[in-house]
């Protein structure tokens, strides 16, 4: 009884310390649901059945990301600036669940539509090293990674619309330049821990779990050494309402994101990705203005059909739209949707950050989702290399952020 009473006291303290939510913004929620229903209907009428399903998955991804404020940019920044590894440990949990789900799916080719399933396994070379480093700098200046940009736009953070626009521009330029980086510069062949090493998926899974545990342990050592500040509580509520309106614990979001990524893999035959759609959107616009995009090396082969088709036939585009809509509904449910202030300095940082992320993502075969999350979950060595280089870019960006009026966490701070 005494133990139960203490647990209840601690729970009450946490609930009472968390900032309270505003009332739900019902007009926005209704508007979001109507927009979602219209888009769903359009996809059901004009596209294959896979697209409406992916819209739902994207919506759930966006809802989860916003509810937990599950970030990659902030996780890297907290670790590199003040040694707080809470969020990075949630990444390790997410990846542990992901590889556990991905291993049998990839080993046996499970898929809902009979197309088979394949992971993201890409080469390790100059292109990856430069691209991931650029992305690490860019996400710290742009205010969010690829998934973070989408869910911040859904939540109404005004400056992130600028980041997204130049993310698209950078991705388009990167697509144009990609043949030089991949064909003219050295790189190793793609390396899978499962199929390139003789370990098989069982051995690769075991090795991955050991690596995640080691990384989590290292973050704990760093955190204790630096006495890093803890993360501040997010606006929340209690009881069953927390599912829809309150903030979710990072560990719950980590598990949900891993499960949704596995569901994406079985639905479309590939893991979750974000930035290939940005290259498509930008290339479509350039094509509209008379640029001969179809002649680019990036749009040859299998990609040619993607360029020729409607953007709504692109599964990554549909996932992205779902993420934005899901984040919008989550923010409105918590009464948190509002447009934020844009200044000259943070707008400039968003322009530079967006360009670096867009260009870097193309060179590095993906972003924090496609290369880091999807690559590691697919047992690809390039995912680990991406994470190391993005951390290095983050370290450099800590010295650049103050130039644009952007904060850097200090040891005495608490933060979200």
UniProtKB/TrEMBL annotation:
Its main location: membrane. The keyword Cell membrane applies. Pfam families: Sulf_transp (PF04143). Keywords: Cell inner membrane, Cell membrane, Membrane, Transmembrane, Transmembrane helix, Transport. It comes from the Bacteria. It is found in: Cell inner membrane. It is a multi-pass membrane protein. One of its GO terms (cellular component) is plasma membrane. The chain crosses the membrane at residues 26-44, 50-72, 93-114, 159-178, 198-222, 243-263, 318-337, 349-373, 379-400. Belongs to the TsuA/YedE (TC 9.B.102) family. This is YeeE/YedE family protein.
């Amino acid at each position: 009884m005494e133990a139960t009473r203490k647990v209840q006291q601690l729970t009450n303290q946490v609930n009472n310390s968390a900032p309270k939510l505003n009332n739900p913004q019902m007009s926005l929620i209704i508007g979001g649901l109507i927009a979602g229903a219209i888009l769903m209907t359009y996809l059901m009428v004009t596209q294959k059945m896979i697209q409406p399903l992916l819209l739902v998955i994207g919506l759930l991804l966006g809802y989860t990301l916003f509810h937990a404020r599950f970030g990659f940019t902030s996780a890297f920044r907290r670790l590199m600036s003040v040694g707080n590894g809470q969020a990075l440990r949630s990444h390790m949990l997410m990846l542990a669940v992901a590889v556990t789900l991905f291993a049998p799916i990839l080993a046996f080719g499970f898929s809902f539509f009979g197309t088979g399933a394949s992971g993201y396994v890409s080469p390790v070379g100059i292109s990856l090293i430069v691209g991931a480093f650029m992305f690490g700098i860019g996400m710290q200046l742009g205010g969010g990674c690829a998934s973070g940009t989408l869910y911040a736009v859904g939540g109404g953070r005004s400056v992130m619309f600028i980041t997204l626009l130049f993310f698209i521009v950078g991705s388009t330029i990167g697509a144009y330049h990609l043949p030089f980086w991949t064909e003219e510069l050295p790189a190793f062949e793609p390396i899978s821990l499962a199929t390139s090493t003789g370990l098989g998926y069982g051995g690769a899974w075991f090795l991955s779990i050991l690596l995640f545990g080691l990384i989590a342990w290292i973050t704990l050592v760093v955190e204790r050494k630096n006495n890093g500040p803890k993360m501040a509580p997010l606006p929340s509520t209690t009881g069953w309402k927390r599912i829809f309106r309150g903030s979710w614990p990072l560990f719950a979001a980590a598990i949900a994101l891993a499960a949704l990524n596995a569901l994406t893999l079985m639905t479309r035959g590939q893991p979750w990705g974000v930035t290939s759609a940005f290259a498509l959107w930008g290339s479509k616009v350039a094509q509209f203005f008379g640029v001969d995009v179809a002649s680019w090396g990036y749009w040859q082969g299998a990609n040619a059909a993607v360029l020729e088709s409607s953007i709504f036939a692109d599964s990554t585009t549909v996932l992205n739209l779902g993420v934005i809509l899901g984040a919008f509904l989550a923010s409105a449910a918590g009464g948190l949707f509002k447009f934020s202030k844009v200044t000259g300095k943070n707008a400039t940082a968003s322009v530079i950050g967006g360009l670096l992320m867009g260009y870097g993502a193309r060179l590095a075969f993906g972003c924090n989702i496609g290369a880091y999350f999807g690559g590691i979950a697919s047992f690809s060595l390039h995912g680990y290399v991406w994470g190391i280089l993005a951390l290095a870019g983050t370290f450099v960006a800590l010295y650049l952020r103050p130039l644009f009026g952007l904060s850097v966490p200090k040891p005495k701070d608490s933060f979200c």
